[in-house]
Specification:
The chain has helices spanning 36-42, 51-67, 96-113, 115-119, 140-169, 175-182, 187-198, 207-211, 258-262; strands at 26-33, 71-77, 80-85, 130-137, 213-228, 236-250. It has 269 residues and is of the alpha+beta class. The protein has a 6-stranded antiparallel β-sheet, sandwiched between helices. The radius of gyration is 24 Å and the shape is globular. The structure holds adenosine-5'-triphosphate (2 copies) and magnesium ion (4 copies).
Length: 269
């Protein structure tokens, strides 16, 4: 048969390089939408924040967490999502390319699969893509700083985008004029423009826009009744309690300590 003996071609397998992720480190896979500036325009995303698009990103990330192993927390904003594998994960022998490509392809296919649930009659015009990268973080502090960095990025971008689109949509400035107006402004200046000229308090903007979305595993007790039939006995119903877990979304601050104190099981000792 052809299956048993090694073919003379098989040596090429040795050209594969080892990309095993260092032990004991958190493995982070971050995805980012390819050319979403254009994608968002062509699909009429509302500016600065289209909730359909954010919902679809979150739905796709949920599918990644449910369908792949060992992801303990994920965090997303704009067109990006970061997935954190537990330190002790041995999924695919910690091979970086396997982990990253499984995350990227599960996410991308989910984005297309669930498109209609979020965008309804707005057609998907072409297949979107996402790039991926793998980064290892050896300590809880490093991992928290990584997630803090992404949330701080969310804040800075969202503050800018919110005042920018307010100037365009309510202030009737062109995009070039709005850009000019914001050159060199600090956070306080941006808040002041919104407050004094548009009566808009940035702190009242939706949490989902200001903080992004974290997905965590939530444990819950579930009691179901099971019908049991023992030999020579009547069939009866017995309650069976089991702990199930499900992915839950929140828009909390993840930079401070509170979130981590409330969810001590995300990070390992
Ligand atoms: P690259 O391929 O290098 O990532 P990009 O065009 O995707 O290029 P990003 O820096 O990733 O650039 O920025 C993503 C852009 O997608 C944002 O600047 C914004 O214009 C748009 N975008 C993403 N999500 C949303 C959303 N929910 N609502 C409105 N616009 C969005
Ligand atoms: P893994 O996740 O490890 O790749 P797998 O089930 O995908 O597991 P593969 O070794 O990749 O295993 O084999 C793919 C299998 O998919 C084949 O063995 C075959 O059963 C099935 N398959 C793939 N393409 C076709 C096809 N065109 N027609 C029929 N079966 C197919
Ligand atoms: Mg980019
Ligand atoms: Mg992008
Ligand atoms: Mg991006
Ligand atoms: Mg296969």
């Amino acid at each position: 048969s052809i299956g048993m003996a090694k073919s003379k071609f098989e040596y090429v397998r040795n050209f594969e390089t080892d990309d095993t992720c260092l032990k004991n480190c958190y493995i982070v896979v971050r995805l980012d939408g390819r050319n979403f500036h254009k994608f968002s325009e062509q699909h009429n995303f509302l500016k600065p924040n289209d909730d359909r698009a954010l919902g679809l990103m979150t739905r796709s990330a949920r599918s990644v967490m449910e369908d792949l192993d060992d992801i303990v927390v994920s965090y997303g904003q704009s067109d990006e999502f970061s997935f954190v594998f537990k330190r002790t994960s041995n999924w695919f022998k910690r091979r970086a390319s396997k982990l990253m490509t499984h995350v990227a392809s599960q996410f991308s296919s989910s984005y297309v699969f669930y498109w209609k649930e979020y965008f309804g009659d707005q057609p998907l015009l072409y297949p979107p893509g996402f790039d991926g990268r793998v980064v290892l973080y050896p300590s809880n502090r490093n991992l928290r700083d990584y997630l803090s960095w992404r949330q701080a990025d969310c804040h800075v971008n969202n503050l800018y985008n919110t005042v920018f689109w307010t100037l365009v949509q309510k202030g009737r400035l062109t995009t070039a004029q709005a850009e000019d107006r914001l050159k060199g402004t600090l956070a306080a200046d941006k808040n002041e423009i919104m407050f004094s000229e548009f009566d808009l308090n940035y702190n009242n903007e939706p949490l989902a826009h200001r903080k992004g979305t974290a997905l965590i595993w939530e444990k819950m007790e579930e009691t179901v009744t099971k019908r049991v039939k023992l030999p020579n006995e009547e069939e009866k119903e017995v309650p069976v309690t089991r702990t199930r877990r499900r992915v839950s979304a929140c828009h909390s601050d993840i930079i401070g300590d509170q979130f981590w104190e409330e969810h001590p099981d995300i990070l390992e000792a």
